[in-house]
Amino acid sequence: MPTSKSDLDAYFDANAERVRGELFDFLRIPSVSAKSEHDLDTARAAEWVASSLRAAGLVASLHETPGHPIVVGEWRKAAAGAPTVLIYGHYDVQPAEPLDLWTSPPFEPTVRDGNVYARGSVDDKGQLFLHVKALESLLAVHGTLPVNVIVVAEGEEEVGSVNLENFIEANREMLAADAVVISDSAMFAPGMPSILSSLRGLAYFQIDVQGAKGDLHSGSYGGAVANPAMALARILATFHDADGRIAIPGFYDSVLPWPDHVREQMRGLPFNEEEYIADLAVPALGGEKGYTTLERTWIRPTCEVNGLLSGYTGEGAKTVLPAKAMAKVSCRLVPGQDPQQIERLMEAHVKAVAPRGVTVTVNHLHGGRPWRAELGGPIYDAAKTALTAAFGREPVIVGEGGSIPVVGDFERILGAPVLLVGFGLPGENAHAPDEWMSLENFDKGMRAMAALWGEYAKEKARGE
Amino acid sequence: MPTSKSDLDAYFDANAERVRGELFDFLRIPSVSAKSEHDLDTARAAEWVASSLRAAGLVASLHETPGHPIVVGEWRKAAAGAPTVLIYGHYDVQPAEPLDLWTSPPFEPTVRDGNVYARGSVDDKGQLFLHVKALESLLAVHGTLPVNVIVVAEGEEEVGSVNLENFIEANREMLAADAVVISDSAMFAPGMPSILSSLRGLAYFQIDVQGAKGDLHSGSYGGAVANPAMALARILATFHDADGRIAIPGFYDSVLPWPDHVREQMRGLPFNEEEYIADLAVPALGGEKGYTTLERTWIRPTCEVNGLLSGYTGEGAKTVLPAKAMAKVSCRLVPGQDPQQIERLMEAHVKAVAPRGVTVTVNHLHGGRPWRAELGGPIYDAAKTALTAAFGREPVIVGEGGSIPVVGDFERILGAPVLLVGFGLPGENAHAPDEWMSLENFDKGMRAMAALWGEYAKEKARGE
Fold first, then answer.
1. Lowest-pLDDT range, A345-359, A396-410, B29-43, B52-66?
2. Are the Cβ atoms of A308 and B307 closer than 8 angstroms?
3. Contact, A332 vs A401, CB < 8 A?
4. Do the Cβ atoms of A226 and B296 come within 8 Å?
5. Which residue ranges make up each domain of chain B?
6. Which residues contact B62 (CB under 8 A, 6 or more apart)?
7. Are B225 and A282 inside 8 Å of each other by CB?
């Protein structure tokens, strides 16, 4: 059965208003996973997703976890030899507070300037729902799909996806797929479809410096006893050299180089540094010499102080020689680096530079591996074609400075490549008041994702 | 009328029990100047001091201030040409909390091992009272004093002597004196009478580092935006060189050198560094190369971090790139240095080393001048003789790392040398639970101070 593009487009056009109404119904459910007073709402959102999957033509089930349920939708009637894809998204949302900063109520979707404003509009209900509607449309028009499909929608992404890894591990046969597709990110700019090339990992530490057994009078003891806060400052000051390069020995040793064409493409993206500086209200940018701002946040590792505490921090003056000082320090890691390796290097370096007279301890609080996309292969090539068709231009490759641990989990446990293709936009206020999603991006994203599966089946068939 | 040493000693011996009883009555008054619920007690202590001055034979008056009154006792019947001395002390005490750490109640004087335990025993009621009793004894035995005497007892020393400077300024004629004597410090060791050679001054700053207009996500922005906490650490790390010397340009330029014999004498004091280290529970001492621990705390300036605050300081990990970072920094100053000069040097240095991408401000919160004793002249020579007679050994010269602003005020406004001679002991717990004073030191201090005035009159007469 050949795909009739015009029939599908006609279906999208004819159903646009109904689809928007359904999206708004979904957005009206305050499924705030972090707040137990919303537990019934979160449960209702899970049921709502299952119903919409069933309405689209999938078999849907709810899987209980110690927290909020995971919704699984399945359609496994593709032609023999067709690949299987897994679509991941989440139906929970961030808390809406502070409520007084919202222009319209967070759970009453409101359209302004072609964008829908609501908590969860772009993160991630809108992006999850456009996939459901793409599947529904394909099934409605063609009666079948070119691939087998598994949809996994969790309700705890905003509270750390604490039960998802176990669920994938426990259900790896049910979830077995040839590719994983996730739409929970943003495009680089309006009209510019984007594929994520990498995520940074994390190694988060607490450094504690202990001096005397208690706070001392800085007059009586100052000068003779090492000052833990000063010792901490001297330790932190060794983390970078004068060029902003991290000076912890061995830190860059396993960093994978990026192909020149990726860096060239990143350098070609329309990035307005003056606007960026003005938005942040900083006198100038900082960072590692030899890299652009985008490279510094996407493909280069960092070492940041996240917190400092020592001695007297109230108003005015107190002449205390503090007994201890604490820093929270975290390194963003890039592909090739490993949190445990960085933990060893950090600890060895801190011990090596720690001044006399204090006791320094380094605790590793939290870590996550970096991730790098393959930027090639059937799902990547298919996405390039589908996005180009829907948006009228080729996708750009972008990085992401943050971490999404679940990406690595899917890749590792299922052994399948992950495609991160999102339809948000800069300034979308995910996690902030006045979150919004472009309705044009919802529509084009839905059409692109509908086209993706046919392209993917073709790419896979070509490869075999 | 020649001084009969044996008559006076007999008087001290005969009245020891009564004097102790009176001291205990004084210590029973909870004259906690910092707490308004003790205002009546503090007023009662002022009256008590005035009564005891009158009983000794002085004319006493209470001078109201915006805070607690200042008690002045006067005896001006010395022979023509005799010098005038001013004795300063304070009748207020520190709060006693935490009460559960006291072995016996803080306002119920209790003798253990030859020491009286009570709040205010050594700081400063016991030391003020031994002067009153020395005067009383001299007047009782001889009917006269070899010097004119002014006693100034304030009730706000523990809350910063906020009204004393104005009082001295406004009453400089009434308070005009040839020498000022203060007993509010400690001897270096038991049996070792001590004269203070210097006090350190203070220049206290707050350094604020501002980055972006708000906290940022360390994943999205980390690497491209200067980190204010890291910038602050890098600034603080420039304050000292590898030898613990302060590296702020010009910092030592006006430091006065000490005579070799003073440093030699300090180096000869029986100081147990291992005990000091064990008491503090530090792995090793820190400080400036080329100086002993006593020199580092007494005669060398410092630059200390008193407080640090930035970003997330709670439990666990939060991936924030802080918008700002703050340090409280203070320099202890030594004779020759001036707080305003240090303020200029500090600000210039911080501006010079501040990294790009952040805005750094330095605020001078508080300052005080250092002070150096003359270590010579009639009052010093007289004290040496009187202390040697009472304690059976020559006094040692000791420094003090803290600041007592009132010392400089007396010297500057009255134009008179100040003698700091105290009878406390190391570990006396001034400002802490279980404050105590040695009863032997009370007795010997009283006898020494009684002998001081005759010796001083002789020294003055010799000089003219």
1. A396-410
2. no
3. yes
4. no
5. 5-199+371-463, 201-255+301-368
6. B46, B47, B50, B69, B70, B71, B72
7. yes
**Is-contact A159 A34, C-beta < 8 A?**
yes
Q: Does domain A5-199+370-463 have CATH number 3.30.200.20?
A: no
Helix, strand and coil percent figures for chain B, each rounded to 5: 40, 25, 40
**Number of Cβ within a 10 Å radius of residue B1:** 8
The answer to whether B226 contacts chain A (CB < 8 Å) is: yes
Contacts of A316 in chain B (CB under 8 A): 365-366
pLDDT digits (tens, 9 = 90+) for A119-160: 999 999 999 999 999 999 999 999 999 999 999 999 999 988
Show Cβ contacts of residue A24 under 8 Å, excluding neighbours closer than 6 positions: A109, A116, A118
Q: What is the DSSP string of A106-171?
A: TTS-EEETTEEESTTIIIIIHHHHHHHHHHHHHHHHHSS-SSEEEEEEES-GGGT-TTHHHHHHHT
Chain A residues within an 8 Å CB radius of B325 = 305, 308
Cβ of B227 under 8 Å from any chain A Cβ? yes
Q: Token digits for A375? A: 């930027």
ipTM: 0.89
Least Cα distance to B462 among B374, B352, B395, B385 occurs for B385
Mean pLDDT on A428-435? 91
Q: Strand pairing of B115-117 and B436-438?
A: antiparallel
DSSP state of B41: H
Under an 8 A CB cutoff, do B297 and A221 touch?
yes
Interface of B with A in 263-322 (CB under 8 A): 280-288, 293, 296-297, 300-302, 304-313, 316-322
> Testing the interface with A: which of B213, B230, B289, B302 to mutate, by most A Cβ within 10 A?
B230
Tell me, yes or no, if A162 comes closer than 8 A to chain B by beta carbon.
no
Length of chain A equals 464
Question: Which of B293, B302, B307 lies closest to A310 in CB terms?
Answer: B307
The pLDDT of B2-25, averaged and rounded, is: 88
CATH number of B201-255+301-368: 3.30.70.360
Provide CB contacts within 8 A for B151, sequence distance 6+. B53, B58, B71, B72, B73, B74, B86, B87, B88, B89, B131, B132, B135
Phi and psi torsions of B330, nearest 5°: -135, 145
Burial environment of residue B39 by CB neighbours within 10 A (0 to 12, 13 to 18, 19 or more): middle
Beta bridge partners of residue A400, listed in sequence order: A199
Q: Is the pLDDT of residue A390 over 80?
A: yes
Name which of B306, B330, B337 to mutate to probe chain A: the one with the most chain A Cβ atoms within 10 A of its Cβ: B306
From the options 3.90.380.10, 3.40.50.150, 3.40.630.10, 3.40.50.720, give the CATH code of B5-199+371-463. 3.40.630.10
Check if the beta carbon of residue A220 is closer than 8 Å to that of residue B402. yes
Average pLDDT over all residues of chain B? 95
Q: Which two tokens stand for residue A30?
A: 């305050």
As a whole number of angstroms, the distance between CA B64 and CA B71 comes to 9
Look at residue B5 in the predicted model and tell me its pLDDT.
58
Which DSSP helix (H) or strand (E) runs through A285? Answer: none
Interfacial B residues in 420-449 facing A (CB < 8 Å): none
Alpha carbons A200 and A120: distance in angstroms, whole number? 24
Task: Name B118's Cβ contacts closer than 8 Å, sequence gap at least 6.
Answer: B24, B27, B28, B106, B107, B108, B109, B110, B435, B436
Give ∠ CA B45-B47-B53 in degrees, rounded to 5. 105
CA angle A410, A408, A404 (to 5 degrees): 110
Quick one: which of A41, A40, A60, A63 has its CA closest to A51?
Answer: A60
* pLDDT higher than 50, residue A2: no
State yes or no: pLDDT of B413 exceeds 90: yes
